[in-house]
Amino acid sequence: MSEPTPGPTSGGASGAAPGPGSAAEARHAAPGDPDALYDLLRGYEGRPAGASVRGRDPVNTPMIRHWCEALGHPVPPDGSAPATMLQVWTMAGLAGREGRTGAYDALLGALDDAGFTSVVATDCEQEYAQPLRPGDEVTCDALIESVSGRKTTKLGTGYFVTTRMDVRVDGVTAGTHRFRILKYRPATSPSGTPRAVRAPSERSPAGPSERPPSQRSPSETPRRPRPVVNRDSAGFWEGVAAHKLLFQRCDACAAPRFPWLPGCNACGSPRWSAAESAGLGTVYSYVVMHHPPFPAFDPPYAVVLVELAEGFRIVSNLVGVPCDEVRIGMPVELEFLRVDDALELPVFRSAPKQAAA
């Protein structure tokens, strides 16, 4: 689910003076005291998350047509935008956001500082007041509508945060969009390990990759995105730590599978065993990335889909080979690349033909 322009997203902040719920004060709150933390979080209710943010483009026929084709929805006979496109006209795209205030970032920072570092979008609600037609230019205001008390779910314990965005055309309300997330501390399994954690955690302070380029010093090297480790994928990442490429093999039908899943996609059996790949395969498909640029990656670079000798496929990087020399069918072999001081990843490089065979 995508988030609206001034709503619950990460990024720069402007225009909001720190209040009683500022991130600075949150660091001194007692994380173990749910009442104190909740009182702190409630101080953000009613504070703006964005003010008078203009949509990047007017409502337009091509976007309506593309959206309808993608969803299999008929284009309305009068040419108006389907009502459920409301959020489309508020999205900022890759260029970044304007009109943001610091209140929402400070709220999330307070939760991060208290240990509630994981996030999941739970639901959104929309209300429609009038149709949007080609040529309409939307503006929107967003505010932090509510923060729940501490709740415990199967994912973990945390707080539900709801933002409300009011979308207007010429000052007249066209619709309302509510977006709700759960900021939580992951639950633990019977063994005491988190059921879903970011590995390794780099939430506080934010790593260079998580800060806007304007806030990075020239000496900072952006880090690659951190993997998310959960009960389904933990075995794979344990293998990576031991320099092993592990996949699953169904105990019922012997079908190999990757990425790791709780059940066999061939026969449906939940029984499986971990197996180690020899790391030899061929390039099944590939793409050379030029744009958009991502922090920690130096374009152009090759992203490959490798078919391993054991019968499964994995997406990874191909190293040591110029991008214009990558070919489908090229034999490759596994190696492990340390991309920074806290993360090592399986990658591939060109291999002799006899080795891949």
Automatic annotation (TrEMBL):
<dbReference type="InterPro" id="IPR002878">
    <property type="entry name" value="ChsH2_C"/>
</dbReference>
<feature type="compositionally biased region" description="Low complexity">
    <location>
        <begin position="208"/>
        <end position="220"/>
    </location>
</feature>
<dbReference type="InterPro" id="IPR039569">
    <property type="entry name" value="FAS1-like_DH_region"/>
</dbReference>
<dbReference type="InterPro" id="IPR029069">
    <property type="entry name" value="HotDog_dom_sf"/>
</dbReference>
<feature type="domain" description="ChsH2 C-terminal OB-fold">
    <location>
        <begin position="276"/>
        <end position="336"/>
    </location>
</feature>
<feature type="region of interest" description="Disordered">
    <location>
        <begin position="184"/>
        <end position="230"/>
    </location>
</feature>
<dbReference type="InterPro" id="IPR012340">
    <property type="entry name" value="NA-bd_OB-fold"/>
</dbReference>
<feature type="compositionally biased region" description="Low complexity">
    <location>
        <begin position="15"/>
        <end position="24"/>
    </location>
</feature>
<dbReference type="Pfam" id="PF01796">
    <property type="entry name" value="OB_ChsH2_C"/>
</dbReference>
<feature type="region of interest" description="Disordered">
    <location>
        <begin position="1"/>
        <end position="35"/>
    </location>
</feature>
<protein>
    <recommendedName>
        <fullName>DNA-binding protein</fullName>
    </recommendedName>
</protein>
<feature type="domain" description="ChsH2 rubredoxin-like zinc ribbon">
    <location>
        <begin position="237"/>
        <end position="272"/>
    </location>
</feature>
<dbReference type="Pfam" id="PF12172">
    <property type="entry name" value="zf-ChsH2"/>
</dbReference>
<dbReference type="InterPro" id="IPR052513">
    <property type="entry name" value="Thioester_dehydratase-like"/>
</dbReference>
<dbReference type="Pfam" id="PF13452">
    <property type="entry name" value="FAS1_DH_region"/>
</dbReference>
<feature type="domain" description="FAS1-like dehydratase">
    <location>
        <begin position="80"/>
        <end position="171"/>
    </location>
</feature>
<dbReference type="InterPro" id="IPR022002">
    <property type="entry name" value="ChsH2_Znr"/>
</dbReference>
